Each structure stands twice: as structure tokens, then as C-alpha cells.
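Q: I'm writing a short methods note and want an example of a predicted protein-small molecule complex. Could you take the sequence and the SMILES for zinc ion and return the bound structure as C-alpha cells? Please keep the output block clean; save any remarks for afterwards.
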Amino acid sequence: MFFRPGARRVYKARPALQQQGAQKDPDHQECKRDFDCSPNRKPNPRGDASPSRSTEIAIHGQLADHGTDERAEDDAWQSEKQTSDRTESGADHRARTRTKMLRTEGGSGEVDEVACCGDNADYDQRPHADAREVLGPRRHHEADENEDVSRQCREDNADQSDNYQCKAQPVEKDGHTIASVSVTLLTSPRFADHLTPPGHPERVERFEVMQVVASEFRQRGGRVVEPRRATDVELTRIHDKEHVSLIKETAGRAVALDADTFTSPSTYDVACMSAGAAVSAVELVLDAKPGARALAMVRPPGHHAERNRAMGFCFFNNIAVAAAHARARGLGRVAIVDYDVHHGNGTQWSFYADPSVLFISSHQYPYYPGTGAADDIGKDAGKGFTVNLPMAAGATDADYERAYAKVALPILTRFRPELILISAGFDAHMNDPLGGMRLTGPYFGRLTAAIVKIAEECCQGRVVAITEGGYDLAGLAESLRATIRALEGDASFEVPTGPTPRADATIDAVTPHLAKHWQL
Ligand SMILES: [Zn+2]
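A: Understood, no commentary inside the block.
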């Protein structure tokens, strides 16, 4: 995601790594040519131009220094100060955001732990022992993945009904008890076991932020549960068997699958757990009473992973696997809303011809991965069931508010989903080092609350949010907290105001294509 031709922001990998990848992977250049970030890029049905290719890398001592953020500034909205911030070294940036996080979040013990864990991003870093204590004992399945395991997991889940049944809980907000809601967080200490090279934005500290947020939620009476792994059966509803096998073969090894997608020895297991958390969240919500909601706080993310290709930090497409699982459970209409700053190409292609899964994405455009143009609206029977809101860099809360109000939310309502899934990426946050948008943390709450409102009208309030990107630690924490508040039923987020030129341009671009299929 950070080394991409045409990308507005370039995250420079260490030359030695790039060189090694080029030497060992004869298809490397071919892979690169598959990317076309031009606005005129045509959809690539099923996104299967290039299967994942693996390049074994030696990790020890190869990546001793941090990468450097080099960010071209091409928007008038960015001030001199922002320019200065965004050209500082990645290490400086992380130090700054952590300091800010401590300052703004009050420095609880857990946050101190994040701040004090060092900026070394040691590729061999293991999860903190006390991090495991925060979330309780590990409970996962080590057996072979097959349908029997899937059945066993379901039985186990039934046995662990205390963990997997959502119970309505009163929630304190500003000293008052608001309406009873049923929100469950899913996360696992295993998510700290996926390691990336030093300087990589999708780093283990992101999990530690999630852990802090989960701990806060638990301390105020919330339920945090451990997910199970996804099975091969569940993964192959979206991915080719060959792709699942390829990722499986990386177990125990450090492998570069593309210029910015790396495995570590535990990545395969963790990726299975990440997809499994998405599946577990769907099961939890569908098995619970109406009104149940869940947030799966996972890494690695998933929405870039295609049928036979790992890319953009993603190995398995967690939310697509979750949607397919909901369909397999008998749901007729599932909606996915993806507000990550990057287009969810893998999710789009997974359901491009499928009218039973509505995919709505708002994203910076043109930007990585290059897909998600206004006229990417699906094909065949699925035409009209892919809705893209390509937004120019610099879009604000007000822009998002207008684009969603005019296009995304009316279509979501008219689709009448039986379950709404959210690709909850927070890299459109104003401080994110990869995204170029200007969203505030609370706005992620407002946007989530708008989706929750439609879920209450259409599908008994059933919503499952699954994390994607979000690389500024303080921004990630702030956005996660706002999202949880929204899932709990809080709709008291500030209404954004201001001009909306980017939203207006987006609406003008997409309406001619979507008006044939939806009343807008
Ligand atoms: Zn993203």
C-alpha cells in the first residue's frame, strides 16, 4: 500500500528489500504492471490477474532501519505545518503520535504500555505477556481445518454460551444509563503474532491499541470474546484453494508476497484467526437476540485480498468471508459498507456479479489500489449492487456526510439488508500517515451510527463491524472508541458543517451510473 506506482503517497521500503524481492521473484515486474491507478482503469472481474507469489526473505538484520515516509503534497488544503509533519521520518512520526496519544488519552496503564513499548518494531517481537492477561486465556483450535473442525467449533461455541451469547447490558454514558444494547467485541492476543518489517505501518502496536480499547470496554461491563479460526471451507467460499494453500505454506517462514505484504512465521495462523473473528462475529450476531452488534478488532486486515492474491497488507478477505458465511447461514441480502480510505478491491470482486451482497465503498480516489471508479457498479445480475463513492483527497466530515446522505445511505435502506457488515478502516482519519482525508475521530462514530440506524429499520439492528486500516495510533484509538459508542446506540455525534465540493463532485460522477438501478 505504500510502494505503488501512481500512489499519491509513497512509503519507501528499504532498497535492500526491494532489490532482494526483485531478484528472487521473476514475476515481480509483472506483478507491478498489473496495477493501474488511472481513473480510467476498468474493472478486473474477479481480480485474478496475478495470483500471489511468494518471495522468501531473510528478516534478521535485513531491515534494521525504519522506512521513511515521503509524501507528495498535491492538495491546496494542506498547510505548511501539515507538510512539515508529513515529511518527517516514520520514527519521528510514530514518536509524535504516541506522545499525543498519551497526552490526549490521559495515560492509563494500558496506554502507557503502548507508549513505552519502544519504537523498535522488532520483527521478532513477541506479544507482551501482560497483554495476554488483559484479554484472558487463549482459546483457539489447533486441529486441522476441515468441516469437522468447523462443526466442532460451532459446538464449542455453543458450550461456551456465556461467551458467545450476547446479553443486553446497560451502558453508562455521561453518567446516565442509555438504552440497553448488546455489543460484543472480538479480539485475540494472537493478533500480536503477525509481525511486519520495521517501519511497516501495519504493525503490532496497532493491536496494542485495540487491546487498550478492549480493556476499557471490558472494565465498563462490556463483553470481549476470543474468536475461533476460519476453516478452509469458510475461506474457500471466497478464495481459491491454491491461494489458501499458498498462505498456508508460508507458515513458519517470513515471506514477501508483494511489495508491502509480508508474512512472519505465525502469519498464516493469525490470518486464519482474523478471518475467523469476522465469521465468529457474524455467528454471534445471528445467533443472538435482535439488536446484537459486534466489532471484530483484528489484524491483519482483509479487504484488499482477492480470490487468489494477497495484497495491501491483506492475506484473507475477512469481511468477504464473513459475508459469504452469512449467506451460507441462509441470509438472502447482506450489505457491506467500507469506509476505509482505500478501495476494498478484494471485497468488490468477490461479489461483483452477486445481487445478494450489496457493496458500498467510500474511498480516496485516485489512490491505491486504483479500483473503485464511479462506473464500477457491478456486472451481470450484480449490476447496481456495487456502489463506489470515489472521493478526492482532502474530503472532510461534511463531504462524507453529504455523499453518504445523498447516495450510500438511501441505497443501503432500499436494499433492505438482513445484516450489515462494516469494513471499519480508520485511515481516512485526518492524522493518518497513509490516507489524505480529513475525517475526525468522532465522525467515524457518526457514520457508524447512521448505518446502525438503518440496521434498526431493516434488520433488527444487526451490525457487524470488522477493522481494516488505520495507522495513526491515537487516531485509531479515538476512532475505535467512537465506533463502539455508535454500536452501543449513541447517536449524539456532532453534525458536520461546511462546504462540500468533493462530495458534490462525487455525487455528480456516480449518480448517472447508479440512477439506472436505484431511485436517488
Ligand atoms: Zn486502508
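A: Remarks, as requested: The mean pLDDT is 75. The pocket of zinc ion is lined by residues 340-342, 425, 427, 468-469 (CB under 6 Å).
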